[in-house]
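Entry for the shared binder. Reason: the reviewer on the internal report wants the predicted structure included alongside the sequence.
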Amino acid sequence: MTQGTTKLAGVLEVAEKSYKVLFPLKLSKQSGEWLVTGKLVTSFTEFGLELPAVLGGVVADTRDYLELLVHLRFKMVQGLAELQAESLSQ
């Protein structure tokens, strides 16, 4: 496995529905451990979700904006290259 960026395709299940996603990830090695971080910017409506409301929208105005964050730390990673190749070929 090498350091850098990649995209990992997968299926995200939200409210019992499946959605295909392509998650951008950054891979780096720090202090002998692998760090995998990423951020997918999307919207609530993209996943069929209603916008959150505070007191019916009287107190706060909400936006149709959603960030999904990943922060994983591993001592050893195996099979990432194969997983990447498989996920991107779908």
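Summary line for the report: Residues 4-88 form one domain.
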